[in-house]
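Data availability (excerpt). The following record was deposited with the supplementary files.
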Amino acid sequence: MDTTDLRRALGRFGTGVTIVSTLDAQGVPTGVTANSFSSVSLDPPIVLWSLRRASPSLAAFDATGRFVINVLALEQVELSRRFASPVADKFAGVGHTRGLGGLPVVEGCAAVFECRTEQRLEVGDHVLFLGLVEAYGHQVGPTLLYCQGQYAQGVNLETPPPPTPTATRTAPCATAPS
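Predicted structure:
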């Protein structure tokens, strides 16, 4: 199978762009750009994402047992590029706060999901992380997309939804253990 052509075919499916963040074994913030994020279940609230097994960040996600999905807003394209590169301190100069477990939560994101790893599955050349959402937040505005090897933005083809508050953030979910 031609892996370059397969990648091109898979790239026809547009995705959102995220930064998945955690802390390494020394408590230093680390993160990666990922577009492999997906919702799995609402009850209980479970999401998934995947990371290459060869990624130097894998040990941090394994050790912490927690992660934050930071769904990037349209204007955060440079953050996506930064976290996809081999920069040593990806959080240097990046606005963030500390969320559950002290994990870094990137400021200005379209949505944020703070998760505890429920399952870790090795599949092919990637590791799938399934996480229980313990807290989340979101704000109105366009999100960053990736399709056909390029950054993109969505166009609403339907009637726009009614106005909502500009930002919301939940407290940790009531069903989540402390």
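Summary of structural features: Residues 3-153 form a domain with the Pnp Oxidase; Chain A fold (CATH 2.30.110.10).
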